[in-house]
Amino acid sequence: MGRFKGVILDVDGTLVDSNEAHAHSWVEALAENRYNVPVGELRKLIGMGGDKLLVAAAGLKEDSPEGKRISKRRQELFLTRYLPKLQAQPGARELLRHMHSQGLRLAVASSAKKDELEPLLKLCGADEVIEHQTSSDDAERSKPDPDIVQAALKKLGLPPREVVMLGDTPHDVESAGRARVAVIAFRCGGWPDKDLAGVLAIYDNPADLLAHYEASPLGAAD
Which CATH class is domain 6-17+87-215? Predict the structure, then answer.
């Protein structure tokens, strides 16, 4: 085994091609409540927790009556209109199985709500190989705060130096960095390399990492 014993997994954008779906769900829910936010602006916020996204996009607190209404509607739109059409990122299932076969311990750290996370895990096959999962329900503060990553670390029972995170957004990179966890990033979430600075390596998608696995930080020995 290489230098790492555990892998913390982001899901949206990293393992499932869902970032655009989340962005459009938010834009539509906000528009129904007279908040017109361009999808391009909203797209940059995907990956952070919904509580922080609402503040950034509309100046609303998630626990306010209006915030609760918009959040609920966003979830309804995502689950009914977009989730049935989503697909796993290329190579996601195969990469997960390979990491598991190599003895790596896998845990999910996602900003998604638990009832949204479960179908996403099934879609990419993560439900078959992960040991633990943490969602926004398990952390007081959402990404880019480090709470969710720290919760996953605690469940794995490993020190930060023995764990790497797979993510696709600057919010993943910041959250992991604040928990002292290194990151391998994917471009498939839609962010350019310059926005993913400070990571160990960047690959196009899970399939690209799998194709170069032995030379990657996951395959390389100390």
Answer: alpha beta
